[in-house]
């Protein structure tokens, strides 16, 4: 039987899309291959949001050249996702042994593209936009207990540094009934956690006049019988009081919010075209903590945006301290060709950016470690994700606040059989990026 292997770079939307690519390939009769070198069809689902992901992709694709020239000429190599969308046929110039290039709007075309590749034709197919949601395609979920459900695609925001609007297109909301019907099917299929996905979930429904908005969607998904509802990503300027109330009132919606602020100074926020001030962000964070006192807040921060001064950066540090994020993802600014920021002068010297990044990373680690230490002794419902990747004698589990807790696999139990179960654990130890725990005896 012919087999496939998918390597996914980047964000949760790409993980979602990869599950759909797998679904489309399996409908065609292909089976997953555990190793990339043994697969007949190799797919790279790519990311171009920062230069590092971009470079890694081309590095990995070229390392497969040896596979094709050394005895396996029939292997089909496909590059899809954001780099496929951005580069189109140019991918062939960078990597001549690639057979298929596809974009972000045409996963459904893969069978036709494979037909072409199998008959020896190299094809790049990239649609400028699309009205099909990858969520409507068949899926092979990576975890039986979890599902990604896309609710919007694209982005209308045009943050000055961001390539996403040009590779994912304008924002479109998926029909409310299609989302709730999908969630209903997933619940019937045993899914216990869904993550609603969009570049800006808070603007869900804006393009469907008179239709339900994100708060109503949370209500509907939260009462579908699924145990846990998560969502990403939220844009601060569109997070409504009704959504905060929905998070507070719907038990299945988890007390965790990822709310990127990107930069702490008003000058940088304006240059980034983010649409809010630091004062507005701080007051939003305060109102969220007021409504949901034990919420875990996480964020994205970019260091070294063009023109960032030491004073601008000090305001980023200050904002992190004031909000006291439980977690933060920190990025060094990476110029992306075609974005407004790429042509801004005044770039910050590399060593200055690295020094700021290191200071921020150390603050973020301290905050996260402090928050973790405050968990010791607490008893929490944890969802078992499966064996830990590093140590199969330990289970990776998540609290409602999305904290990772390592718990020893109970005697006689199988880590895989426990995946998807919600058990009760006592937190016994804290580390900077995870917790240790033990199951409360009666639950296992
Ligand atoms: N450089 C660095 N970080 C970026 N991000 C998006 N574009 C860039 C860029 N050009 C970060 C933002 C976003 C996260 C997904 O990636 O923080 O929230
Ligand atoms: Fe990029 Fe801004 Fe849209 Fe997020 S909101 S995808 S950072 S343009």
Short description:
It is built from 15 helices and 19 strands. With 444 residues, the chain is an alpha/beta fold. It has a six-stranded parallel beta sheet with strand order 2-1-3-4-5-6, with helices on both faces. A five-stranded mixed barrel has the order 15-16-17-19-18. It has a three-stranded parallel beta sheet with strand order 7-10-11, with helices on both faces.
Q: Mind explaining what this structure looks like?
A:
The protein is of the alpha/beta class and 444 residues long. The protein has 3 domains: 3-125, 3-Layer(aba) Sandwich (Rossmann fold); 134-373, tm_1862 like domain (pyruvate-formate lyase- activating enzyme, Alpha-Beta Horseshoe); 379-443, OB fold (Dihydrolipoamide Acetyltransferase, E2P) (Beta Barrel). Helix content is 35%, strand content 21%. A hairpin with a 6-residue loop joins strand 15 and strand 16 (394-398). Helix 13 runs parallel beside helix 14 (350-373). 5'-deoxyadenosine (5AD) binds next to strand 13.
């Amino acid at each position: 039987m012919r087999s496939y292997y998918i390597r996914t770079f980047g964000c949760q939307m790409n993980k979602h899309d990869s599950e759909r690519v797998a679904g489309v390939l399996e409908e065609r009769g292909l089976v997953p291959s555990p190793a990339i070198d043994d697969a007949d069809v190799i797919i790279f689902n790519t990311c171009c949001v920062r230069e590092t992901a971009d470079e890694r992709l081309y590095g990995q694709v070229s390392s497969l050249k040896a596979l094709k020239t050394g005895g396996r000429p029939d292997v089909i190599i496909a590059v899809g996702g954001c780099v496929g969308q951005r580069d189109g046929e140019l991918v062939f110039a960078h990597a001549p042994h690639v057979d298929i290039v596809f974009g972000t709007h045409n996963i459904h075309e893969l069978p036709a593209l494979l037909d072409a590749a199998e008959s020896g034709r190299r094809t790049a197919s990239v649609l400028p936009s699309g009205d099909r949601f990858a969520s409507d395609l068949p899926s092979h979920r990576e975890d039986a207990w979890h599902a990604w459900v896309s609710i919007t695609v694209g982005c209308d925001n045009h943050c000055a540094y961001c390539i996403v609007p040009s590779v994912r297109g304008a924002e479109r909301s998926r029909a409310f009934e299609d989302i709730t019907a999908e969630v209903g099917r997933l619940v019937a299929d045993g899914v216990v956690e869904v993550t609603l996905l969009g570049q800006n979930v808070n603007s869900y429904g804006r393009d469907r006049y008179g239709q339900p908005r994100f708060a109503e969607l949370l209500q509907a998904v939260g009462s579908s019988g699924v145990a846990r509802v998560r969502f990403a990503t939220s844009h601060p300027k569109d997070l409504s009081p009704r959504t905060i109330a929905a998070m507070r009132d719907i038990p299945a919606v988890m007390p965790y919010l990822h709310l990127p602020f990107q930069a702490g100074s008003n000058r940088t926020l304006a240059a980034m075209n983010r649409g809010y001030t630091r004062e507005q962000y701080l007051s939003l964070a305060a109102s969220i903590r007021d409504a949901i006192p034990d919420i875990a807040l996480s964020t994205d921060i970019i260091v070294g945006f063009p023109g960032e001064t030491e004073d601008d950066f000090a305001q980023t540090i200050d904002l992190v301290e004031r909000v006291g994020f439980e977690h933060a993802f920190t990025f060094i600014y990476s110029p992306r060709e075609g974005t407004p920021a790429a042509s801004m002068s005044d770039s910050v010297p590399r060593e200055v950016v690295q020094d700021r990044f290191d200071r921020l990373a150390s603050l973020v680690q301290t905050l996260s470690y402090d928050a973790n230490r405050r968990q010791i002794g607490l008893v929490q419902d944890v969802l078992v994700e499966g064996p830990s990747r590093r140590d199969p004698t330990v289970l990776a589990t998540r609290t409602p606040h999305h904290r990772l807790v390592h718990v020893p696999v109970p005697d006689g139990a199988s880590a895989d059989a426990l995946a998807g179960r919600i058990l009760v654990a006592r937190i016994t130890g804290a580390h900077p990026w995870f917790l240790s725990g033990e199951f409360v005896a009666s639950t296992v």
